[in-house]
Amino acid sequence: MQTSIIERTMFNIVADDVGSLRDFYTRLLSFEPTFDSDWYVVLAPKDGPNMELGIIARSSDITPQAAASPPGGGYLTFVVENVLLAFEQAKAMGADIMEPPADMDYGQRRMLLRDPAGTVVDISSPTPAMTA
Questions:
Q1: Could you give phi then psi for residue 70, rounded to 5 degrees?
Q2: Do the beta carbons of residue 84 and residue 90 sit within 8 Å?
Q3: Residue range 50-67, pLDDT digits in tens
Q4: What is the pLDDT at residue 97?
Q5: Can you identify the CATH homologous superfamily of domain 10-60+73-131?
Q6: Residue 34 in contact with residue 43, Cβ under 8 Å?
Q7: pTM of the predicted protein model
Q8: Would you tell me how many other CB atoms lie within 10 Å of the CB of residue 43?
Q9: Tens-digit pLDDT profile for residues 11-52
Q10: Quick check: 131 pLDDT over 60?
Q11: Which of 7, 20, 74, 117 has the fewest beta carbons closer than 10 A?
Q12: What are the residue ranges spanned by the domains of the chain?
């Protein structure tokens, strides 16, 4: 059976303040806007993998009603070169850090934070033992 070919992958975060959330991700992880309006923003990693992060206004007619309420049951993960640098940036930004970086038994050093829209974000990198 033939399947559809994926041409684009993105995750959309529903937000009350689109610009504030855009600024949060551009400061924390160096995303760059590829589309920027008052109701919708598309961000992509400057030099990273082909992934896009959309931020859409909760009040937009295009936002699916099923997604318009605060998130639950999922989280967004970014694997970075050095989670400690992301942690320092998050602290400097006054981000809502849920868990500081900690070495996990599966070989990642992980921190958890909540973005301004309430999305739980996992930022991690391989533990030093995994990269040695």
A1: -55, 150
A2: no
A3: 788 888 898 888 777 777
A4: 96
A5: 2,3-Dihydroxybiphenyl 1,2-Dioxygenase, domain 1 (3.10.180.10)
A6: yes
A7: 0.78
A8: 24
A9: 899 999 999 999 999 999 989 999 999 999 999 998 877 788
A10: no
A11: 7
A12: 10-60+73-131
Enter the tokens of residue 38: 């008052």
Query: Which residue type occupies 118?
Result: G
Q: How many separate helices (H) and strands (E) can be counted in the chain?
A: 3, 8
Angle CA 17–52–88, to nearest 5:
70
Q: In the sheet that 76-79 helps form, which strands lie side by side, from edge to edge? A: 76-79, 120-126, 108-114, 96-103
10, 33 contact by CB (below 8 A): no
pLDDT digits (tens, 9 = 90+) for 80-121: 989 999 999 999 999 999 999 999 888 999 999 999 998 989
Distance CA 40, CA 57 (A): 6
Q: Are 117 and 13 in contact (CB under 8 A)?
A: yes
pLDDT greater at residue 39 or residue 69: 39
Strand, coil or helix: 18 = helix
Q: Which two tokens stand for residue 92?
A: 């400097």
Residue pair 29/121 in contact by the 8 Å Cβ criterion: no
